[in-house]
Amino acid sequence: MESAKDPAPAKPPLTLHLANPRGFCAGVDRAIRIVELALKKYGAPIHVRHEIVHNRFVVERLEKMGAVFIDELSQAPAGARVVFSAHGVPKSVPAEAERRRLAYLDATCPLVSKVHVGAERHFRAERQILLIGHAGHPEIVGTMGQLPEGAITLIETKTDAEAFAPADASRLAYITQTTLSVDDTAEIVSVLKARFPEIAGPHKEDICYATTNRQDAVKAIAGACDVFLVIGAPNSSNSLRLVEVAERAGARHAALIQRASDIDWAAFADARTAGLSAGASAPEVLVDEVLAALRARFTVTMEEHAVAREDVIFNVPRALAS
User: Which of 82, 134, 201, 248 has an alpha carbon within 20 to 30 A of 297's alpha carbon?
Assistant: First the structure.
């Protein structure tokens, strides 16, 4: 008589705190829909200038559908249809498209466009404009490209704010990148307001609601977590900020991962609690993938923590709505 097989060893317990809101925001959802609808209406290929959003999974999926991602418009053939990414573009880009007679759709997030409008308003009022953000990020390149060179000065850190010397302290304004750390930005703005009490700011905070909500959700749970994972791309500003927020809020170990295959399981060696969030460009399917990987190794008890309800929807361009 054969002996019974030894039972599989019990998986260790893990309490998983799941952040909510997480993942796609309205601007990202709109940008992806614009590419999908353009492919459906006009057929492949649709050329997209830069990554439509900062997520390789999303980009590769759209490539399979017929999207062609390019770095510059010069790579698009004559007569091509082009989509501009959600991060926004300098004014020189649509001007070049028109000069080359390329049909284009602008997928710039409406909240980024709001920052552009604010910059124009301050410029018309003859104010020197300070832009709080990270050098080289596509959103910063796009925002600075709305105005003539020299009209906007980039402020990256509190030290920059302390060292800035204005031409006229009575004619200053500030705007910000939409995906910054809420706390870091507040510190920089505080320095600017203390130094320049007359500085003009946005009518409503430039950091977008989705960035704020995702950071608040991480703050609410990170202190209870041995390990905190953020799903997002290494070039995603809002995702990187979530890792920083988790660290500051008390997570013992916080890491950015693109897929479940990136998880450093050594960090879970003696973990009993974990947290999980996803940047605004990361689809929920990647959250499901990470959950499946955790459940394969642990007996997971999941607790979802909601700090806000999001019901924002941005309409696609009229050319695609019909």
Answer: 248
CATH of domain 111-195: 3.40.1010.20
- CATH for 26-109? 3.40.50.11270
Helices (H) and strands (E) in the chain, counts: 11, 12
Phi-psi region of 214 (alpha: psi -120 to 50; beta: other; left: phi over 0): alpha
What is the distance between the alpha carbons of residues 62 and 69, in angstroms, rounded to a whole number? 9
Could you tell me if 33 and 291 are in contact, meaning their C-beta atoms sit under 8 angstroms apart?
Answer: no
Q: Which tokens sit at 56?
A: 């390789």
Distances (CA, A) of 6 to 1, 10, 289: 15, 12, 29
Name the segment(s) of the chain with CATH classification 3.40.50.11270. Answer: 26-109
List alpha helices for 197-283, DSSP H. Answer: 209-222, 237-248
* DSSP code string of 27-95: HHHHHHHHHHHHHHHH-S-EEEES-SSS-HHHHHHHHHHTEEEESSGGGSPTT-EEEE-TT---THHHH
Put simply, whether the predicted model's pTM sits higher than 0.85 gets the answer yes
In the chain, the N- to C-terminal Cα span, in Å, equals 71
Averages of pLDDT over each 10 residues, the chain, 322 residues? 62 97 97 98 97 96 98 95 98 97 97 97 97 97 97 98 97 97 96 98 91 97 98 97 98 98 97 98 98 98 96 95 76
What's the distance, CA 73 to chain centroid? 23
Half-sphere exposure of 286 (CA within 13 A, CB side): 29
